[in-house]
Each structure stands twice: as structure tokens, then as C-alpha cells.
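PROTOCOL LOG
Step 1. Enter all chains and additional molecules of the complex.
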Amino acid sequence: MKKILIGVFCLCLVCGFTALAAAETLKVGTLSPLTGPYAQDGTDIKQGVLTAVEVFGPVKGFDKVEVLPEDSACDGGKATMAANKLINSGANAVIGAYCSSATEPAQIPLMEAAIVQITPASTNERLTSKGYKYFFRMPPRDDVQAWSTVQFLEKKLKAKTLALLDDKQTYTAGLTENIKKFAAENDIVKVVAHEHIAPGDSDFTAVLTKLKKVNPDAIYMSVYQPEGSKMIIQARKLALESDFITNDAVFHPKFLEVGGDSANGVYLTFAKAPESDVRTKFEETYKKMWNVESIGSYAYYAYDAGMMLLGAIEKAGTADGDKLQETIRGNEWEGVTGLIEFDENGDRKLAHIVWVVENNEFVPYWDPLTGKDLK
Amino acid sequence: MDTKAFIIQQMVNAIFLGSIYSLIALGYTMVYGIIELINFAHGELFTAGAFIGVIVLSFLQQIGWVDSHFVLSLFITFSMAMIYVAVLGVAVEHIAYKPLRKASRLSALLSALGMSIFLSNGMMLAQGVSDRAYPQVFGNAGIEIFGAIITYGQIFILLLAIVLMVGLQIFVHRTKLGKAMRATAQNKSMSRMLGINTDRTIRLTFMIGPALGAAAGVMVGLSYGAVRFDMGFIFMIKAFAAAILGGIGSIPGAMLGGMIIGFVEVSWTAFLPSEWKDVTTFTILILVLYLKPSGILGEDVAEARV
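Step 2. Run joint prediction.
Step 3. Record the structure below.
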């Protein structure tokens, strides 16, 4: 009798212990620009993660999931401060940031604290080449993007001359450097001009007129969406004859909204996700939850990052950085942006395709890997 | 595009940008001239004008007035934006500056900064964080002069800017209210003694300056395509530089300063490496201040006033 009592008592102790251990809050931090020029994308990311937490529901082993949205403002200093704040408030994992120039410095404290960081947007290839094992990236890298762009220029557009335009940030300048490098390899496309703007500028008439004088076959706008939208409007007013190509940061419904008719005919590079049920379902949920008509491109990646993270935490049974990164790396995850699978650097095997704006819609146009038309 | 066309096109760009800077700079200079205060909230008043413009213009486009009554819609858009911001300007003056009129200038300056942050965040909450598309009512059509393209929109905006600036000059120099304004700027207590209602004159200044800024805001939206809550900052910095360059307190100085900043910015981008354009603008500002601290057309009364 005594033994049974002791046994029950021990069982109670164990159960009580697990129940106590489970009385825990899972804290997911997000870093994205919630103020400043790129606040639209930043808000998309925050909302994507919040949607994931809502859809995923309760996470086994945790009482509740709390999202801590922090503002990284596309600024290295603010991003580092926000990352430290997240570490101090006990975030178990971080999703962010948006601009590569904000993600790069924020990596340092997060990696030191052994916290898993998943960026839903930063594409500069340097971020995953530092050997950080807690760092993962959802979208494809910029060298892949630049390669796709150069392939498109050489094989599809048959451009001979190219002008580059960037705003000298880590992401934009990294892209133009890569394009220069890939263009020099085959030497089919010549870079005839390389101009710069300042982030946040509104007036691009002077620099566009300068490019009009050079009159290249193609102009590559390596900018973010707010500048890109205004730039294309002004380029059409100045009647530039060159073809316009731009990057994945401009691939956003806002570009179509602000650019209007001027956006038609612009080529963009962005990864194409396969149509799937989860994607359609996500779109419905997101639109209903945030009362919006169109979904920002990075909300998809942020949602995937959130779903994968919660799934991995449940699978690993812990939010401990080491176990979590092993679980994320060692498994395949179903996502709205396709199958998620990471290599040793924390990159996905994703490729870009070229899109074109037609009748104010993004339409798949050309596949750089196969060289085939998609239309 | 040959060199001649290129230079003409760049000159058009410069005059255009310059006149927008001038219009904003006028708001700074007028307020400074009358109460010796840098109105830091001016950039936000400019943005508010741009927002009222996009709200009114989008509405008019929806109900079809832009197509049926084009000129009338533009008139309504500009006047609504200007009237709204004029009222807002007076409200800002009443809340943030009037109680501090006898306090030290530093308190008023801080109050101005606070007002700027308040308005900027208010607009962020009310209008959202993302770009707001401006209806491109003018389209891309235009005339060609020696290969340079000037759109009808640009012509309209330039003409309007000239009308506003000439109108302001006439108002200040030819009307009784303008005379009162100049008198108040010269000596506030003396003009009060002579029966000028200085409070009313200051209020008037806070109507005209922001209203001009609002017009510039609508122009920026119409020509560059989008507005956002924080767009006032870059324009504010440049226009502030223009006002100082031309001599703060001087109305022709602000116009001249705006044009100079516009020309320097555009010609630097046109002929030299574009990444240095903002550096040059401010280097020129520093040089002018070093060689002639009161600005190009500024009167040397700054010391006497203090």
C-alpha cells in the first residue's frame, strides 16, 4: 500500500512537473521596417507571421504563442537595437529583417545568443556565407537573381547595352555588382552606365534624362518598390525607349497600383510558387484577417517562415536554438512558396523566373533555367 | 537624344524641381520673417496638402468629374488642399507657437519640432504607412521642343507655380494686408502701436505660407506619382536649405534659393557622378553661409533683431 502510494505520489510529481514545464509562452520576434519608406513590406511581414501564428493554433509544449513585432526601419543601427531588445525580452526565435543592410548587423547579436533567425526577404548572398548555423533564408539569393537577369538580357531580350541604377544600399548595390560580374563573364551585354539615386528620393527626372541620352537597350532598376513605382512613371513621361527590368523588391501589388499604366511592359525577377491548395487557403485567410484586397509578396515568405518555425518547434519539442536549427535543416517543409528545404548554408534551392507586367498584372514570362517562354 | 535636347531637358527638370523647392521655401521664409521661428512642421503641412490633394482628386476621378470638367477638378483639388492646410497652419500656430510668443526662441523651436513629429505620426496613423498612388490625370502627353519633352502636366504646374509666386509678390507689396505684414516683420511692437493687428497678421502669414506648401505637395504628387506620410522630410531639408541660401526672411530670396538648389541638384546629376548630388547641394549651402552668412538676398538685420 505504501509502495503504491509512493508510486502515485511520484507520478503526481512527474505530471505536475511536466505541467509546470508546459506553462510556458513561446515568443516569436519579428524584425521588419514598420516605419520609414519600406513600411509597407515591413507590415506585410509582420502580418504574415501573425497569420501563421493564428492559423497554426496552439503549439504543443507551450501555453501560448506571443509575437513581438519590432521595427528595424531598414537601418543597421535600429535593427541591432531591435534584435537586442528581442533577446532581452526572451524571444525564442526571430523572423526578419527586410533590408539586407538591416539583417546583416542584426545577425551578430542573434547568432551570439544562439537564436534561430529566418529572414523572409533579405536576399544579399553575403548573409548566408558567414557560416552562421542559426540563420535561414526563405527567398532565393541575389547572385541567383542577377544570373537570371543576365540570362534574360542575353538570351531573350538580346540586349547589347545595359544601364544600371541603384540606391547604394547593401541589397541594391549587391545586385548591380553581381549583374556587372555575370555580364562581364559572357561579354554579350555591355554595362554602359551605372547611376545612383538616394533612398527616399522622389525626383528621378535628372538621372533618367541622363540615361535617355545614353539610350541603352535595357535599364536595370535596382531599387525598392516605392522608388521603383515613381521612377517608372517619370521614365514613361520622359519617353525612354529602353526596356525596364527590375528586381524582387519591386514585385509588389503596390507597384501596379502606383505605377498604373506606366508599369506595363516592365520585366521583374521573382520566384514562382506552384499553385497549391495551401496557397489558395492562405490567401483567403490573409485577405479576410487583414481586410486587404492584394497580398504583399513578402507576406508569403513571412507566413512560411512562421509556419515552418512553429512546426519545427513542435517537432523538436523545444525552442532551444541548437535542436531547432537541426530540426529545420533536417526536414522538408510544405509551404505556400513551394517545398522548403535548406542546404548547409541555410539557403533554399529556389530559382527566379522573369515576369512581365501586362494589363496591370504580373504575368510569368520566361524561365532562365530552361530558356523557355512561360506565356 | 543629342546634346542640345539633353541640356534643354535637364533645364526643364531643374526649373520644375526648383519651383517646387521655391514654393516650399516661401513658407519657411515668410514665417521666419515675421516671428523669427523656423517652422519645422512646414514639411508636414506640405505632406498634408499632398494627401488632401490625392483624396479630393481620387474622389473627383471616381465620380467622373476629372473626365468631364478637367480644369474645374484641378481647381477644386488645389483650392481644397490649400484651404485645408491654411486652416491647419493657423491651428498649428495657435496651439504650438502663440502661447510661446513671449518665451525664449528655443522653446518655440522645440515646440515646432514636437508639432512636426505629432503631425507626421498623425498622418501615418490616418493615411497608412505605404505609398498612396496619385491619379495621373495629365497622362504622358506633351510637347517636344528641340527633342526635349515637356508634358502638359509640367507646363500646367510651372504656370501655376509662377502665378502663385507673382501673386504673392503683388499681395505683399501692393495690398494693405501685405503692407501690414511687412511692417510686422520689421518691428512688431512699433506696428502694434500704430494700430496694426499683429496677431491677425501673423495668422495670415501662417495661412499663406502653408497654403503655398500645400500647392507644392499636390504638384509633387501629380508629377512624381505617389505620396507618403514621411515624404515631407527630404523636401523640407532641401527647401530649408533653399530658404537659408536665398536669405531667410526674404521672399525673393526663397524663390532664388529654391531655383539654385534645383539647378545644382539637376546639373550635378546630369554631368557628374549622380551619387554626390546631395553632398554638393549642402556644400554649396555651407559655402554661401561662410562667405555671406545672411544668405544671397538676406538683409543684414539678423543681429539687430535679436
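Step 4. Note key features.
Chain B touches chain A through 40 residues (CB under 8 Å).
Residues 3-35 of chain B form the longest helix (33 residues).
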